[in-house]
Amino acid sequence: MQMLDDDINLAAKVHYSFIPDGFENDKLDIAITSRPLRKLGGDYCSVMPVGDDRFVICICDATGHGVAAALYSARVNTFVLTHAIKSTCPCDLVQSLNDYLCRRLIGTGIYTTFATAYIDTKDMHLVFAGAAHPPLLHYEASSTKITQINSRATLLGLNCPLKCEIEPTRTALSPGDRVLLYTDGLSEARDKDGTLFGAKALAASLKNNHELTGDELNNIIVEEAASHCSDLFTDDLLLMSISIK
Asked: DSSP readout, the chain?
């Protein structure tokens, strides 16, 4: 039993070493917070600079918990790292990832939500595509407005081709804007009455704390969600806050 525990601990150390601690340059600041329910979980993300002005940001949440979900999400990430820089449209990445999962991992009984944001800091825009993933939240510094951008496709790895039409959503960006990507372990944290923390509370926290650093913003959001559910999370949690400089 001790040997098995040691193996799981080592596997968790290796697995989470591939989740970025964050990313910062003169155009973006990305803070990342991960809180698995168990030692290993199915939440994963990646940040890929493509040239000087383009960034591909991805996040996924494989169904279930533990070793199998972790391996599945790691395979998603490997595919993304290999194929994202070749794709000029996020929808192409979503479709090709789904094709791969259906071809190679259909018998596992595991599926995944997925979202990707292609950010161009030269032309100052974001293009988003999501598959059954919680909505992206965009805080506009000029108007203090929060825009919610929803996923338009179903879970990946379930049907090939995807049953619903997927189209990208393009959004203008400005310095001072903030963007949140997260998994449902955060938004679906429930209080004792079963009430979800929800995207509305996330948006309020983003708006009220938009001047904080990325790490500070993440900490506040996770603390508010933990307070809402009395720190009794029932799922893995992953949060990415993106600051446009």
From this structure: -HHHHHHHHHHHHHHHHTS-SEEE-SSEEEEEEEE-SSSS-SEEEEEEEETTTEEEEEEEEESS-HHHHHHHHHHHHHHHHHHGGG-SSHHHHHHHHHHHHHHHSGGG---EEEEEEEEETTTTEEEEEEESPPPEEEEETTTTEEEEE---B--BTSSSS-SS----EEEE--TT-EEEEE-HHHHT-B-TT--B-HHHHHHHHHHHTTTS-HHHHHHHHHHHHHHHTTT---S-EEEEEEEE-
